[in-house]
Every structure is written in structure tokens, then in C-alpha cells.
Amino acid sequence: MSEFEIRPVAASQAGAVLALYRAAAAGPGGLARRPDEMDLAYVEGFLAKARAGGVTLGAWRGQVLCGEIHASRIGPDQFAHVLSDLTIAVDPAWQGQGVGRALFKALFAAAAKLTPQVVRIELMAREGNADAIRLYQALGFVIDGRFEQRVRMPDGRMEADIALSLLLPADAGAA
Fold it and tell me: Closest Cα partner for 40 from 61, 13, 59?
């Protein structure tokens, strides 16, 4: 496995994140948005939301962004213990090299240190992205449900969106 460093993503790095997301969207597995559906404002928006009470981390090799993961809080105080809107993107050239797994582990560690304490992390994956679902389950996520015919694929087929969650230990952030 190649060496990479995981560190928070700064607002000034939005251009690198946009390039990464466009590459990931065009590659195997893809993302929920097509490359042409993403622009700098979209990336700046999710990065700002994640930095405001959530987490955004990048996996870097030198100046090359290999992958990015972010999750944010979803709103009212009754959900302050939840990180949601989780998205991970790994450059197709770096897939299969441990980048995704390392980003998730770093996300779990960062989430455990947030205040108020995070005890639940949520994500969605389309049913056809079986490799991603297997990774999520190997990391401890469980399937919470299915949203049938929620995702319209470019060829017109409909797929279910699979809701997954991971519960962190209630004292995971305690030192």
C-alpha cells in the first residue's frame, strides 16, 4: 500500500476536492452526482457544513488528494449526537489501496472527539454499489432499511438506496 497522510480539508482546498469528486463520479461505483452536476459552490457548501460541527478529512500523498470523507450534523438538538450526509470519494487510481478504510477510521476517531458527543453515523449507498456496502459492513455499519426505487441510474434503471448506520460507544471520546 502506498503511503498517504490523513488531515482535515481546508476551505482553500475546495478546488482539489472538486477535481477528486469529478474523477470519482466518472469512475467505477461513481457518486450520486454526475461530474457535470458538481461545481465549486457545491463543494464549498458541503465542506463548510462539515467543518461547522462535523468532520471533513482528506487522504493526501504529497500534494495529491487521493480521497476525501465528510459528514455533518443534521439539524435540531435532538439529533446533535448524529453525523449524517456522509460522503466518501476515492480517486479511481487509489481505489483498492486502503484509502477508504483509512479515511473511515480517521472519521470515527474524529467523530468520537466532537462535542456534543456523536454516537451514531449514517450513510446511504445505492444497492448496486455492492463493493461499497461490503466495506461499510466490514467497518461495522449495519443496514437500517431500503428506499425502493430511489435512485434513477443513467440508463433509466431504478435502484434502492440502502440506509446504513454505525453506533459508536457512548464513551468513545473519553480520554
Answer: 13
